[in-house]
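User:
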Amino acid sequence: MKLILLAILIAFSFANQMNREDGKFIFETDSSPESPIGFTMKGKLNPESEEDSSVQTFFRLAEQLIPLAQSSLSDENKSSNLQFYRRWCFIGGGLGDAITVCAYANAELWIGWEVDHDGGLGLYNVTYTPFSYLRGGVNVSASSYPAEVSYGGYLSAYDIRVPINLLLSDTQICWSGNFHLFATSAFTAINTNLLQCQRSIPDWTPWDCDRVHGVEFQHLYFPILDSIHIDLLPFDCLTF
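Assistant: Predicted structure:
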């Protein structure tokens, strides 16, 4: 068992890499390098140009990479996604109905960026985190304005995050990069959402509602594969 775990860690170390070239951070990661099928995330970060910073997710089948989605740091919402969605309603048929009970099946692939700033004590500290994850599941929901509650079962196929930290002071710039592959898992969750609805009173048109996503409460959790965490780029500094 220890030899198998060691072999998996070695495979991840070779498949997930990050280099710093001409001030840019170039990275490539893979969800399951030991398998002929997986998801690969490639990208680059240019701290001086958001337009020159992008990340892309591929479906890997043997040695072939099939592009799925791409996101640029300069995008307004800094993320994009692919979604499959189906709905079956037993009571009512839309969010504007007095009472609605529906079942949903969905799968979604998300890719994008998170940016966290922490300035203080004369330092500029920023972390850029490109991410990619795939999740699917089924749930049953009940809604009545202004709230919606659902309960479902989900599978988190993979969740990759690659935080790149930059620390700038008066005399130094420092950087580091990590790889986090969170556990593949199945879980159940309770989701709560708010409904914002409007309609034209003179015409008595159907309610037009938007769903505002609220809080997810995880109920049962079943890990399938363990998490993997790797230091891709050791902490280093440049003095000027």
